[in-house]
Write a structure and sequence with these properties.
The chain is built from 9 helices and 12 strands. The chain is α/β, with parallel strands linked by helices and 322 residues long.
């Protein structure tokens, strides 16, 4: 019986597919490439899937044993009944997105601190003046809510830019503290953690436990004039509470790359929020070459592990959701 790998990726440059085919053939697999959305019947005999697939298609893939998602966020695949049986292993691409998303965070934070949206509006009207004071990452107190690859990359870059203090929040604070981090808080102590911080950056996955992690209480606990950033999932933020905090000028600004729902409807109230830098979920896509290469490396490494019967890297706990 043929061992088939189904591939549906948004970055299928010729040499990448050649690398996948060469590795697969060496290990006894045949590669089936889907240029467009695959049909359910085309997945029934696939043992391995690599890329992104509509969850509704997966329950018909009766031969499936392992799916390597090309993204880090896998909340679409962690619900009950998505896969045909409980033995299917799901791995994500955690570790591939820290570079691109942390640079997006640095970019949007500096844009707000240096008032780039205001200067953009000024020069669009052919204005030429100094608007007022700006702020700096240097000397700031910064909190990374989520200390995975993305939070760690952002925290270490803030440290390199001279942040006075960089702290983190995670579910298991007793784990060893990384070098970039001054202090680690438990998720349950979020209100304590955000107090006094100049910048709060959220990069946690979308799970049942993280829904509306930031709401009215958490924004009220933040320092007046702080900045808030979110690149995790839109569901982690009570968007009305964020809107109210911006309208009340509790926050100096917010930059969010994720929303709930997506795309954001044209009549949604967030479009009219003051001092909000909104981007359409672009911080971690496949537009950076390095990201594509890292995703490829994760898959090819895991493919060898799968063939050898060794544990897979970045395996998702379907009950925890990440």
């Amino acid at each position: 019986m043929k061992r088939i790998i189904g591939v549906h990726i948004s970055f299928p440059r010729g040499d990448r597919m050649e690398r996948i085919r060469a590795a697969a053939e060496k290990l006894g697999f045949e590669v089936r490439v889907f240029d467009g959305e695959p049909r359910a019947e085309e997945l029934t005999d696939c043992e391995v899937l690599f890329g992104m697939f509509r969850p509704a298609l997966l329950r018909t893939a009766g031969n499936l044993r392992w799916m390597q998602c090309s993204f880090a966020g896998v909340d679409h695949y962690t619900g009950p009944g998505v896969f045909p049986n409980a033995e299917v292993r799901l791995t994500n691409a955690a570790g591939a997105y820290g570079i691109t998303i942390s640079e997006h965070l640095i970019c949007t934070l500096l844009m707000m601190m240096r008032r780039m949206p205001e200067y953009g509006a000024l020069v669009a009207q052919r204005g030429w003046k100094i608007i007022g004071d700006i702020r700096s990452i240097y000397g700031s107190r910064i909190l990374c809510v989520g200390m995975g690859d993305i939070g760690s990359c952002f925290g270490s870059r803030c440290r390199a830019l001279g942040a006075a203090e960089v702290s983190g929040v995670r579910r298991r604070p007793a784990l060893e503290k990384p070098d970039w981090c001054d202090r680690v808080f438990a998720t349950e102590a979020l209100c304590e953690a955000v107090a006094g911080m100049d910048v709060v950056a959220c990069s946690v996955p979308g799970t049942h436990d993280s829904r509306h992690l930031f709401g009215e209480k958490e924004f009220a606990a933040m320092k007046d004039g702080a900045y808030f950033l979110n690149v995790g999932r839109g569901t982690t933020v009570d968007q009305k509470a964020l809107y109210d905090a911006l309208c009340a000028h509790k926050l100096a600004g917010a930059a969010i790359d994720v929303a709930d729902p997506e795309p954001l409807p044209p009549d949604h109230f967030l479009w009219d929020a003051p001092n909000l830098l909104l981007t359409p979920h672009v911080s971690g896509n496949m537009s950076l070459e390095k990201t594509c290469e890292l995703v490829m490396e994760i898959f090819l490494d895991n493919l060898q592990r799968y063939a050898d019967g060794r544990p897979l890297l970045h395996q998702v706990d379907l009950r925890a959701g990440y």
